[in-house]
Amino acid sequence: MDKKFRKTVIAGNWKMNQLASGVPAFMETLTADLTVGKGEEAVLCVPFPLIPAMKAAAAGTPVKVGAQDVSAHDKGAYTGEVSADMLADLGVDFCIIGHSERRAYHAESDELVNEKLKVLLAKGITPIVCVGESLEQRDAGETLRIVSTQVQAAFQGVSAEEARGIVVAYEPIWAIGTGRTATSEQAQEVCSFIREYLAEKVYDWDTSKAISILYGGSMNGKNCAELLAQMDIDGGLIGGASLKPAEFASMIKAGSEDA
Ligand code: PGA
């Protein structure tokens, strides 16, 4: 089974929700009876100001802490930006880049995503690179072209060895926050295409088999087991459902069975 070559990653994306003051109570409920598998990572990607509270609350638990963005610059006169160095200094292990909301509202281009990916790798933070098509693009039959362009650009100039430490999240834009999940067949089709593309057009099968590819878009406690059972779906990037500790714990448990 190919899945033994890579980790199952269940990552919550809190987006711009929750407060630092609410983190201890959330984490108490989440971790009360938490099962994280041996080959599994449980991650919460939180807004920057919540990172210290989340690090403190996650200490001694298997939960890892992630950010939702990073500056492509190292340091200096970039008002409002947060560097990879700052994230590493706080003990951040993962960072989402290229989320469709950032691509849409903050002009995050494929080139910028590639720059961000490289600054994260340089600081030992695992990038979670998001790719995915809009509804118009899907309807026009452009899904695989869009996704391959985004993957190709994100991995530009990244060695095979470095690529093994990168997580890809396939998030069809039409499924994000809409309650309209991709079917497990639709999600598997694109995740398997991404794996094949990485194996045949960018690296090789050994490298591609080691890369965790997640699905994201209205994944929840009810539909996650079926999605995770797919051959090329190695976890989830979870928005809304990660704000509910009991439901998110059940998804981490489902991931542990799949890991
Ligand atoms: P959702 O968000 O689970 O609320 O659809 C997923 C995401 O945007 O990462």
Description:
The chain has 259 residues and is an alpha/beta fold. The protein has 12 helices and 8 strands. An 8-stranded parallel barrel has the order 1-2-3-4-5-6-7-8, surrounded by 5 helices. Helix 3 links the parallel strand 3 and strand 4. Helix 7 packs across helix 9. It binds 2-phosphoglycolic acid. 2-phosphoglycolic acid (PGA) binds at residues 13, 171, 176-177, 216-219, 237-240.
- What structural class do helix, strand and pairing data support? alpha/beta
- What ligands can be seen in this structure? 2-phosphoglycolic acid
Average the pLDDT over all residues and give the rounded result. 96
How helical, in percent, are the residues?
Answer: 40-55%
Q: Specify the number of helices.
A: 12
Residue ranges: pLDDT <50 for 5 or more in a row?
Answer: none
Our estimate of the beta-strand percent is: 15-25%
Rg calculated over all Cα atoms = 17 Å
Strand order of the largest sheet: 1-2-3-4-5-6-7-8
What shape does the CA trace take? globular
Distance between the termini: 11 Å
- What does the main sheet amount to? 8 strands, parallel, barrel
What is the number of E strands?
8
| SSE series | EHEHEHEHHEHHHEHHEHEH
What attributes does this structure have?
alpha/beta; binds 2-phosphoglycolic acid; globular; single chain; 8 strands; 259 residues; 41% helix
Describe the secondary structure blueprint for this structure.
Elements: E1 8-13, H1 23-31, E2 40-45, H2 51-58, E3 63-67, H3 84-89, E4 94-97, H4 100-105, H5 110-122, E5 126-131, H6 135-139, H7 143-154, H8 160-163, E6 167-170, H9 184-202, H10 205-209, E7 212-216, H11 224-228, E8 235-238, H12 245-258
Parallel strand pairs: 1-2, 1-8, 2-3, 3-4, 4-5, 5-6, 6-7, 7-8
Helix pairs in contact: 1-2, 1-12, 5-7, 7-9
2-phosphoglycolic acid (PGA) binds next to strand 8.
